[in-house]
Design brief:
The radius of gyration is 21 Å and the shape is globular. The longest helix has 22 residues, at 366-387. The chain contains 14 helices and eleven strands. Helix 9 crosses helix 11. It has 485 residues and is an alpha/beta fold. Strand 7, helix 8 and strand 8 form a beta-alpha-beta unit. The protein has an eleven-stranded mixed β-sheet, with helices on both faces.
């Protein structure tokens, strides 16, 4: 019995009823990875380890809510004894001596890590084109981008290889690939999930979360991912709820805000029409729709592209060719070792962001750029705080368009790609939870609907998303994959 495209709930039922063994489940997963290798969604696979753990689970009969479920990790979560590259030449030989907290939390729940997924280098990108390991491909259409930076994880779920994968979201990097690949992904509240052992891009923005086929599956994975971690100074010392316990609760009366500043003539007609259809669906299941204003949200993109590069330039300064990572063989002294190791180890987009970040933090420019961006960030957060006194959730499109052809954007102007995160960046700046789920297609390619929740209110997002999915079938649509086999 094939497990391709099945949800966590469906796979757990098959395991409980002994219709499939853990070993058979994992062997099929590994076979799918090989059969669909042209998608380029995996960098490393854990065949031997995964089969060994599956065999142990067949004997032990472990029965957590997600035990035995195959999962893929974005390749910036440290995994003990397994290569962790961040999609970069700089870390192409790095094997961590420890697991990230996210990895160990899920290991303790007896999921089976089948491999590490492709990604934009150091999570810098919106298309998974900046990977040192070559671009990943959208399973819906050959040679099209899957979104990024968690593109490999979204592809692995969309192609039915695994029912769940981890991702990280700094400015939309879970939600945007989830939208463009037709799956569901949630970025929790900042600090809800530990960042320890997650290679840093921008420390005040980065957050880990799950990508799955459904909101219900996201809740099951988030149950095990979330929680306080004393090793992470940004971790919230608040007991995480059991998200899955309320995901199927009655909807109740919910008011959903529509952002006036996003409803302009610049929104493509197909995106606007699909969005209007989803508004009608939510109204039909009992939600009230209310127009709100977030006046400073229009400054989200420039604010983000000052703060994120500034933090990245600081975080990536540790990669100098000395302690770990790529070391140049073309060095005559210490200075040339630093310069050549970083020149050879980093790709163009990473170098671009390091240079921007170093500039905005430099003497004479800090107040004009970085300090000002942090002040605007505060205004954006205050706008959300005011809005959530009137509404329960905020709804926007996830992406300005459907997926596009690899190499078709950003060749002459790399900053053109920065606008792909137009709708997603603000929730990272404010530290708010946000989810993307499929809600239609344009030119045969899926697009996503974004739900943004109040601080620490992942439960409402997941509940509304789950009810939406029970009343629609967008999340059930699958790519044919014929051109990949």
């Amino acid at each position: 019995m094939s497990i391709q495209f099945k949800t966590i709930t469906e796979i757990k039922k098959l395991l409980r009823e002994n219709k499939i063994s853990h070993v058979e489940l994992i062997q099929e997963t590994l076979d799918l990875i090989n059969q669909l290798s042209d998608l380029n969604c995996f960098i490393t696979t854990n065949d031997e380890y995964a089969l060994r753990k599956a065999k142990d689970l067949d004997l032990s009969k472990s029965n957590t809510s997600i035990s035995g479920i195959p999962i893929a990790h974005k390749d910036l979560f440290c995994t003990q004894g397994t290569l962790t590259t961040c999609g970069s030449k700089m870390l192409s030989n790095f094997t961590p001596p420890y697991d990230a907290t996210v990895v160990s939390n899920l290991e303790n729940a007896d999921v089976i890590n089948v491999g590490k997924t492709n990604m934009d280098e150091f999570a810098m990108g919106s298309t998974t084109e900046t990977s040192f390991y070559k671009p990943a491909h959208n399973p819906w259409k050959k040679d099209y981008i899957p979104g990024g930076s968690s593109g490999g994880s979204a592809i692995a779920v969309a192609a039915g290889i695994v029912p769940a994968a981890t991702g990280t979201d700094t400015g939309g990097s879970i939600r945007q690939p989830a939208a463009l690949c037709g799956v569901t992904g949630i970025k929790p509240t900042y600090g809800r999930v530990s960042r320890w052992g997650m290679v840093a891009f921008a420390s005040s923005l980065d957050q880990a979360g799950p990508i799955c086929r459904t909101a219900e599956d996201c809740a099951l994975i988030l149950d095990k991912m979330a929680g306080f971690d004393e090793k992470d100074t940004t971790s919230l010392d608040i007991k995480a709820p059991k998200f899955s316990s309320k995901v199927n609760a009655p909807l109740g009366k919910k008011t959903i805000g529509i952002v006036k500043e996003f409803m302009t003539d610049d929104v493509p007609k197909d995106v606007a029409t699909t969005f209007e259809n989803s508004i009608q669906t939510l109204e039909s299941i009992g939600c009230k729709i209310k127009t709100i204003s977030l006046p400073n949200i229009i400054y989200s993109v420039p604010t983000y592209y000052v703060i994120a590069p500034a933090e990245c330039s600081s975080n990536l300064s540790r990669y100098d060719g000395i302690k770990f990572g790529h070391r140049s063989k073309n060095a005559q002294d210490l200075e040339s070792l630093y310069i050549n190791s970083r020149t050879e180890g980093f790709g163009d987009e990473v170098k671009r962001r390091i240079l921007i970040g170093t500039y905005v933090l430099s003497s004479g420019y800090y107040d004009a750029y970085y300090k000002k961006a942090q002040q605007v960030r505060r205004l954006i957060k205050e706008d959300f705080e005011k809005a959530f006194k009137k509404v329960d959730l905020i709804m926007t499109p996830t992406s300005p368009s459907e997926a596009f052809k690899i190499g078709s954007k950003g060749q002459n102007d790399p900053t053109q790609l920065y606008l792909e995160d137009l709708y997603t960046i603000s929730s990272n700046l404010a530290g708010l939870p946000a989810l993307s789920m499929p809600h239609g297609e344009i030119n045969g390619l899926p697009i996503g609907l974004q739900l943004i929740g109040d601080y620490l209110d992942e439960e409402t997002i997941l509940n509304v998303a789950n009810i939406f999915q029970k009343n629609t079938d967008f999340h059930n649509k699958k790519p044919s994959l014929e051109e990949w086999l």
